[in-house]
Amino acid sequence: MKDIATPVGIVLGLVIIVGANVLEGGNPMSLILLPPMLLVLGTTVMVTVAGGTMADAKAAVGNVKRAMTGSVEPAETLVPQVVTLAERARREGLLALEDSLREIDDPFLVKGVTMAIDGTDPEDVRDILEAELRAKKRDDKQAAKFFSDAGGYAPTIGIIGTVMGLVHVLENLASPEELGHLIAGAFVATLWGVMSANVVWLPISNRLKRIGELEAARMELAVEGVAAIQSGANPRLVAEKLRSLLTTSAEAEAA
């Protein structure tokens, strides 16, 4: 099931900001000015791309979707699956697990158990799985960094937009009737810089970090589960070992 915490939080955050503006007697349309929005949002994206690679930029598009609708099965849901596999392996041998793999929807666990069934050395199995886990963590770190960088650039670019706007104000001192509108427009750039950083970019970054943590925890549990199955450990001990890797609340739910 999709977890929509991020889009709900961002949308409601923006609604509250607009609502507060209306309650203060402001006009929301006065905040939607194309030049400062284009300057802040467009330049933020471009300088963030400049700080990485084109591969990072392309991956960012998919990561936005992942942040908005992605979800991760809690690590504790793997415990009963691993215990069931351990029971069957202890009773019938590793080869008997081949039929059970069709019932497992976790590709990482399936990969580990498949290598065990094929007779791969336990140390090699662990090394391969842990290498994939490390690579996954590196990718997740970079995905989150792209948006945290954007959150760092946006406020400064907003200030640049405000300075540019104030320069335009000074150029029009001879027309006092236009100064109010020009000054307001200048400060809209700072608003969009700070708002986009704290309502959009940084929440997306933190969301990607959290999803990455949950996925890594699930993969770590799978690594230990495969090792326990391959060693022929007692299923009860397997369950206890895996539960010890979970947080207190997750452990209670798994039990």
TrEMBL record:
<dbReference type="GO" id="GO:0071978">
    <property type="term" value="P:bacterial-type flagellum-dependent swarming motility"/>
</dbReference>
<comment type="similarity">
    <text>Belongs to the MotA family.</text>
</comment>
<feature type="domain" description="MotA/TolQ/ExbB proton channel">
    <location>
        <begin position="102"/>
        <end position="220"/>
    </location>
</feature>
<feature type="transmembrane region" description="Helical">
    <location>
        <begin position="146"/>
        <end position="170"/>
    </location>
</feature>
<dbReference type="InterPro" id="IPR002898">
    <property type="entry name" value="MotA_ExbB_proton_chnl"/>
</dbReference>
<keyword id="KW-1003">Cell membrane</keyword>
<keyword id="KW-0472">Membrane</keyword>
<keyword id="KW-0812">Transmembrane</keyword>
<keyword id="KW-0813">Transport</keyword>
<dbReference type="InterPro" id="IPR047055">
    <property type="entry name" value="MotA-like"/>
</dbReference>
<protein>
    <submittedName>
        <fullName>Chemotaxis protein MotA</fullName>
    </submittedName>
</protein>
<dbReference type="GO" id="GO:0005886">
    <property type="term" value="C:plasma membrane"/>
</dbReference>
<dbReference type="Pfam" id="PF01618">
    <property type="entry name" value="MotA_ExbB"/>
</dbReference>
<feature type="transmembrane region" description="Helical">
    <location>
        <begin position="29"/>
        <end position="50"/>
    </location>
</feature>
<keyword id="KW-1133">Transmembrane helix</keyword>
<feature type="transmembrane region" description="Helical">
    <location>
        <begin position="182"/>
        <end position="204"/>
    </location>
</feature>
<dbReference type="InterPro" id="IPR000540">
    <property type="entry name" value="Flag_MotA_CS"/>
</dbReference>
<feature type="transmembrane region" description="Helical">
    <location>
        <begin position="7"/>
        <end position="23"/>
    </location>
</feature>
<dbReference type="GO" id="GO:0006935">
    <property type="term" value="P:chemotaxis"/>
</dbReference>
